[in-house]
Write a structure and sequence with these properties.
Layout (H helix, E strand, L loop, with lengths): L11 H4 L4 E5 L4 H13 L6 E5 L7 H9 L5 H7 L1 H6 L1 E5 L11 H10 E6 L10 H21 L5 E5 L10 E2 L10 H10 L2 H12 L5 H16 L5 E6 L1 E3 L16 H9 L5 E3 L8 E3 H16 L8 E4 L9 H14 L13 E3 L2 H25 L6 H19 L4 E2 L2 H9 L2 H6 L9 H16 L7 H42 L1
Parallel strand pairs: 1-2, 1-4, 2-3, 4-5, 5-7, 6-13, 7-11, 8-10, 9-12
Helix pairs in contact: 2-12, 7-8, 7-10, 11-13, 13-18
Protein name: Fatty acyl-CoA reductase
Function: Catalyzes the reduction of fatty acyl-CoA to fatty alcohols.
Subcellular location: Membrane
């Protein structure tokens, strides 16, 4: 297909001009980044409608205010002003887990008469979520959103944000539909009818070979979207493991410790010292600014170019950049030890990945559980609340999920996105970056740790000198303890050998 390059001028942002967009999951990690991208790079976009539920005593409007208070929006607020941004966003109170999305008839009419693009990002990303809750949000919630989309009179595109890790029986994933693990309609009906405790008791049998409820329910939801493609203009985005920003608008920004960031912080604090993992294996990671840029480019191609044949997009990176699990940890330990130390490290960063479970379990016993027990006892004796044992329980639970992905390998074909790179011009390549050119892995991880220090751990730069001094102290403590332990072992081994030798002689 021939595409006019428009003399090198941006065509993507103008496509959004005066188009009204509905976003679910706007208070989440990816959702925030998508809202910020549209407001900053597509200022002439029509109204952005955000489906938001009340949570923890906060109204949908208050939650939107919390979103704009995030450091992610500082750049665009400086460019356009907070009042302008808020006026461009309309909050719709609702809940994708509830029938009819729990929206009022007036709000439904507002949506169906105005919306032309929908991004359905809302999902529970907890791998250990109960099956009933995961089905209600990830699968039934998608069905409800599809039902709403079918009523939209001006709909140009319904974009469903899936995951590249939801058809795990395939080792090479192509940009095509795959059969679901079960009939999504039957699963929804069964889960609606059964009590949560009953569903919990059947979960393992229902999941079968699927490792967790997240992958299972996202695969079911995909099937619903594919089923609807004859009735509505729908596309599926399959991002891989979405991680902190590469550069826009803040290098390394994140608002959570999921994925590699949690590993970096845990290793940097000296808490994680052993993992059962194929150290040479790799995951597929995608900085969140790349993910939302790709979503914008894909939308432009689908809506403006009317390229409806390309309707499943793999938003992935491992075909170009492969970073092993060991590479992540070793880089993180080096950065924290030598450049950007974290405050209050419990031990000097160290440890290693284990290729067998028994090695990991043994190491975890000596280097995770025993220190946790001792330190918590000391904290209790000094009048503080014990915390480390609970932290290691959470880490161990996280490892149960992580181990499946770390010890298996998947690759992803992304021919459609590679095609998109050939039809965007130079200005668009900069404004909506969807290639790995210029990405420096070491610099990226430094930015991730620095941003995690600021935004997650709330550790300001003025504490770095003290953190460096503490790190040097912990280096000596680590060396002295290892010397004493290994020296003691050698002493007792030597003593035992001497006794055996002496007994054999006499």
């Amino acid at each position: 297909m021939d595409v006019d390059m428009n003399g090198g001028r941006d065509r993507i942002a103008p496509m959004f001009k005066d188009r009204h967009v509905l976003i679910t999951g706007g208070t989440g990690f990816l959702g925030k980044a998508l809202i910020e991208k549209l407001l900053r790079c597509c200022p002439e976009i029509g109204q952005i409608y955000l489906l938001v539920r009340a949570k923890k005593g906060k109204s949908p409007r208050q939650r939107l205010e919390d979103v704009f208070a995030n450091p992610l929006f500082e750049t665009v607020k400086g460019m356009r002003g907070l009042d302008t941004l808020i006026s461009q966003c309309t909050v719709i109170g609702g809940d994708v887990t509830e029938p009819e999305l729990a929206i009022t008839p007036e709000d439904r009419k507002l949506i169906t008469e105005n919306i032309s693009i929908i991004y359905h990002c809302a999902a529970t990303i907890r791998f250990d979520e109960t099956l009933k809750k995961a089905v209600m949000l990830n699968t039934r919630g998608t069905k409800y959103m599809i039902d709403l989309a079918k009523q939209c009179k001006k709909l140009d595109m319904f974009g469903y944000v899936s995951t590249s890790y939801c058809h795990l029986n395939e080792k090479l994933l192509l940009e095509k539909p795959y059969p679901p693990p079960a009939d999504p309609h039957k699963v929804i009906k069964a889960v609606e009818w059964l009590e949560e405790g009953v569903v919990d008791g059947m979960t393992k049998k229902i999941l079968g070979d699927c490792p967790n409820t997240y992958a299972y329910t996202k695969a079911l939801a995909e099937a619903l979207v594919v089923e609807s493609m004859d009735e509505i203009p729908a596309v599926i985005f399959r991002p891989s493991i979405v991680i902190p920003t590469w550069r826009e608008p803040i290098p390394g920004w994140t608002d959570n410790i999921n994925g590699p960031v949690g590993l970096l912080i845990g290793a940097g604090k000296g808490v994680i010292r052993s993992m059962y993992c194929n150290s040479d294996g790799y995951g597929d990671y995608l900085p969140v600014d790349f993910a939302v840029s790709a979503m914008c480019v894909c939308t432009w191609n689908y809506v403006a170019n009317q390229d409806h044949k390309r309707n499943i997009y793999h938003l992935v990176s491992s075909a170009e950049i492969k970073v092993s699990w060991e590479g992540i940890i070793e880089r993180g330990k080096w950065i924290v030890s030598n450049k950007i130390p974290l405050n209050g490290v419990l031990w000097y960063p160290g440890g290693s990945m284990k290729r067998t479970r028994w090695e990991h379990n043994l190491s975890a016993f000596f280097f995770h559980w025993i220190p946790a027990f001792v330190i918590d006892c000391l904290l209790y004796c000094f009048g503080y609340k014990p915390i480390l044992w609970r932290i290691h329980q959470r880490i161990a639970k996280g490892f149960e999920v992580f181990e499946y992905y770390a010890n298996n390998q998947w690759d992803f074909d992304n021919a459609t996105v590679l095609y998109l790179r050939t039809i965007i011009n130079e200005e668009e390549k900069v404004k909506f970056k969807i290639d790995a050119g210029g990405v420096e892995i070491q610099e990226y991880f430094e930015n991730c740790i620095r941003a995690a220090r600021w935004y997650i751990l709330k550790e300001t730069d003025d504490t770095i000198p003290a953190a460096r001094r503490h790190m040097r102290v912990m280096w000596w403590v680590d060396k002295i303890c290892k010397t004493l332990i290994y020296g003691g072992l050698l002493y007792y081994i030597g003593k035992a050998l001497y006794s055996m030798l002496f007994a054999s002689v006499f």
